[in-house]
TrEMBL record:
Species, as recorded: Caballeronia calidae
Listed transmembrane segments: 21-38, 58-79, 91-110, 116-137, 149-173, 179-199, 251-276, 296-315, 322-342, 348-375, 387-409, 415-437
Keyword flag Transmembrane helix: yes
SUPFAM superfamilies: MFS general substrate transporter
Protein name, UniProt field: 4-hydroxybenzoate transporter
Membrane topology per record: Multi-pass membrane protein
One GO CC term, this protein: plasma membrane
A Pfam family: MFS_1
Record key words, sorted: Membrane, Transmembrane, Transmembrane helix
Amino acid sequence: MQADRTFNIATLIEEQKTGRFAAGLLFWCFLIMLMDGYDQTAVSFAAPAIIKDWHVSRGGFGPVFGAGLFGTLIGSFIFGYLGDRLGRKKAIIIGSLFFGALTYASVWVTSLQELMLLRFLAGIGMGGVVPNSVALVAEYAPKRLRATWVTLMFSGFSIGAGSGGLVSSALIHRFGWPVMFAVGGVGSLLVALLLIFTLPESAKLLVLRQRDPQMLRKLVARLRPDLNIPADAAFVAGEAREKQQRFVLKLIFSDGLAAITPLLWIVFIANSMALYFLQNWLPILMEGMGIDPRGAGLITMMFSVGGVIGGLVLCRFVDRHGVAAIISLPVIGLPVVAALGHGSSQGWLMLAVFATGFCVVGAQYGLYAVAGMIYPTSFRSAGVGSAISVGKIGSVSGPVIGGLLLSMHLPITQLFYAASLLFLIAAVFSTILALLYRARFGEQPAAEAAFEPPQRSLLHDS
């Protein structure tokens, strides 16, 4: 019977056992996120050496940091759309090749204007990788593990961002600041080339777009080696609203998302502003507090280490409690960040920066996971990409405002007080988001409640 050869792709994914396919998917997405994180922060760790080499002011790096993050704003929206149209894999590889080449080209810049232009262009590729990686992992993850998988994948970003501290401490004094961009550019290009042969396309997206049935059968056979998939097997999405449709902006405000999407954006903006203000300026601020360059790099590395641990701790709570799980971290982070400016010893600063990263980066992980839960497959990449794009308003303005405040020669304690206010905003609006989310969708992620009917078997109900 035809029904015996028609498989529900959503149920196939939901009932999978975590094995080689899942491990490979997470490994390769983790690796490209690691390079994305390294390349985004390479300029921050190179900045103190560039300031001394070129004799430029610290505040002059505000536009450089902002330009790169403005590029990620544009890239996350453009590549989010391309990922839904061309496929997650193609969008990730194109974005990776793009930012890898432009990061490597930064080795030869001779002015802040040249560096700003290349950071902007590279940022377009960096921003494009994130929403498609989130969407790809979310579409292969069982619902009970979706936040955990997204967080494990995205921990690569923080590890990559933190590894810049190790590279700068070990190599800049020997080879100069260009080594930061050489390592990032070459590494990103190598990983992008490997992804061509190793990264799977989204099986759900292939079903929805009705593309390449032969590739789809091979992917399902790798995903579920315990099943015998016939050569003439057919696949259905198995989700009520998951059908092929052209993305239009109003979709991310439909079916109960009219208030949830803007609230998600506000929390993204506030948390991203705090995250990128701290991530970009910490090496310079630490040196301004009297820490030597190598020590400043190691202290800043603790920001990313704390972020990885915070994200891993938070992910299980997101799987169980959804949006409500992200409220606690901004509340804890507020007094910690306010106290950073009063640090007196390198040991205390390492602990405080670790705790700060735990809260702000951990909350960012939670937001990526929640965004991946809210939107359905048909426009998940665009939905996540739009949230990340709007969040880049905070990513861009945070470093730029930091540069302006530094140019005003404000005390460092006041700079950290200003950053702590962003945690208050994030806490208030994430609370409102959680309450509205629960009222509209209950305990289930929105994509499940609004778009997925009960699933009873692997076989489509014909």
